[in-house]
Amino acid sequence: MLTDKNILLIIGGGIAAYKSLELIRLLGKSGAKVVPVMSNAAAQFVTPLSVSALAGTPVRDELFNLDAEAEMGHIRLSRDADIVVVAPATADLIAKLANGLANDLASAVLLAGNKPVMLAPAMNVAMWENPATQRNLTTLRDDHRLIIGPNEGDMACGEFGFGRMAEPEEILAAITTALGGGVLRGKRVLVTSGPTHEPIDPVRYIANRSSGLQGAEIARAFMALGAEVVFVTGPADAARPVGAKLIEVQTALEMEAAVNAAGEFDVAVFAAAVADWRVASASNGKIKKTKGKALPELELVENPDILRSVSQRGSGRPGLVIGFAAETDDVLENASKKRLRKGCDWILANDVGGPRPVMGGLDNQITLISEDGTEEWPWMSKRQVAEALAKRVSEAL
Ligand code: CTP
């Protein structure tokens, strides 16, 4: 929570400005007071009226507003804040702050401030990669400015790459951490996520339909409550959670090694859809199809069960170990047995064989099974599932 914290939010002029509305809503929900400042260009993307209405206070948008400036408004604005957040931070705002320019209210507030400054960059990938922008970012990092994102992904301009603004939840999590808040502050959480790819030969592999979205949302939800998250992910489509310690792996064996090397945790959530089997010995060369010859036979061996081995660790077992049970038949019965067989504390059962797609989809329906019994949650977005889980964990610790 950010109860009674004052956030000065500078909204730069970029297409990602629309996401700042959601950020204001999230900040308000966690108890913060938001004072919005809009650059002149920002008003081309979101209206000052909607920003004011969501923040519950008027937008500040002019350097030479006589009423406000009678009491040196721009100095006061920066001093009253606990943190100054720039979202989206355009290439222009980044350049101004890096070089100490102050020719409008947004840049003047940034220059006059004596509080932590966090920037969430958002721009076209070529602008992001431009040496001038990268030089400015190096300067800002040296000046101890906090930088969150950007993410990689599709952009409004139709291109793909780094430059998408971090998601509002990720910015909220980073603000919470920067201000030392969050009920899970000081807790270490491990999240495994995504599918694994088990090689057959250099061009083929065994995989599954996991998108990694549920795991990424879980990591974000725990960070939003102030936890330090280590995120071990297979080759998933979903955007990586910004702010987590990221460990990328391909295979189940690599995931097991990464988990074992990652240290001790208060909580471990195993959201990865680990392949149960791997090919006993993957071919070094591409397996060719040869007319008239027998079809290749793949000998499979079982992969290590990472959830099981962590659950059954003697010393150094996380205080709370949570697994998923992806089932298609007798969901609750199988999931309950799975919890006992693996030795984890909670299992989140989901039906992956129903008409509504869970693997690869946006929503999920969970039944939480613990030694205290079962708890059926309604259909929710994977983000809501993640928030509900993080809240439930914070109550249980
Ligand atoms: N899991 C794991 N390592 C494995 C297999 C699964 O850590 N090698 C974890 C998953 O991350 C998940 C839980 O175990 O939290 C259950 O995964 P699931 O695929 O439902 O079960 P399996 O163990 O594969 O059992 P089965 O295929 O028999 O349903």
In terms of DSSP E residues, the strand content is 15-25%
The biggest beta sheet reads: 8 strands, mixed
Strand order of the largest sheet: 12-11-8-13-16-17-19-20
Number of helices: 14
Oligomer state equals single chain
Q: Please state the CA-atom Rg, rounded to the nearest Å.
A: 24 Å
Mean pLDDT across the residues is 93
CATH class placement of the largest domain? Alpha Beta
Number of strands: 21
What ligands does this structure carry? cytidine-5'-triphosphate
- Please identify which CATH superfamily of the largest domain we are dealing with: CoaB-like
Q: How many angstroms separate the termini?
A: 17 Å
Low-confidence stretches: none
Stated plainly, the CATH topology of the largest domain is called Rossmann fold
Any idea how many domains?
Answer: 2
- Determine the structural class based on helices, strands and strand pairing: alpha/beta
Helical fraction: 25-40%
